[in-house]
Amino acid sequence: MKKLLSIVLLLIVSTTLAACGTGEEKAGESKKLIMGTSADYKPFEYVDTANSDEIIGYDIELANMLADEMGYEIEIKDMEFSGLISALKTGQIDFVLSAMTPTPERQKNVDFSEIYYTAKDMIISTKKSGIQSEKDLDGKTVGVQLGSIQQDAAQELSKSIQLKVDTRDRIPELIQDLQNGRFDAIIIENTVANGYLDKNEELQGNTMNVDEEEAGSAVALPKDSELTSEFNHALKKLKDDGKLDELAEKWFDGEQ
Hints:
There is one protein chain. The chain is of the alpha/beta class. It folds into 2 domains: about 30-120 and about 215-255, D-Maltodextrin-Binding Protein, domain 2, CATH 3.40.190; about 120-210, Periplasmic binding protein-like II (D-Maltodextrin-Binding Protein, domain 2), CATH 3.40.190. About 40% of the residues lie in helices and about 25% in strands. The longest helix has 29 residues, at about 1-30. It is globular and about 50 Å long. Residues about 1-30 have low confidence and may be disordered.
């Protein structure tokens, strides 16, 4: 009888300890967020192929700073830019940090944090093309990233001039097809464009006339997510402490 009682007590203690361990794992998991990004957008997010397969960039460092401020760990998932909103809506990821602009169309499906960075669109073409502004794109074929605000801008421009708009999933594909003559020009964000212009002497860039408010980048989150206020609070803290300015200087004005 004593032996049987000892076995029963041992089972109860083992079950209790196992349950405690499970509870601790769940608590740890609840502090982990999965971030979606499209790692083809240097210097915001890209793969450091020279040293490793690690994804680095302004957005990646910002994500880690925000996570530290809020007390979370993050796991990064690389995917096509055009699939980020769908992945967020279906719960595959918890938030998007990928230089994404909160357009009215996107705001119908997800929520956004406050703007953390503002840039402008740039027309990239070969120096021999003669393209200097939007009006020079009349009758031309222009490449843009699928699902980007540059695609929206090009399609809007096509209402006033004869313009063929074609898409690619990744920025390097746009650059390659421009150099191969498949596009007369491409439209990408100026901060991203500068990196390619520095490495390709045959290319030139001309900034488009776009409302700055329309070109800002923000964190995308599920509709009515409690995380939105957390991200906004953390962003404000980083801004007030001068950390956002330091981060921008490092990635946009430095040697990254």
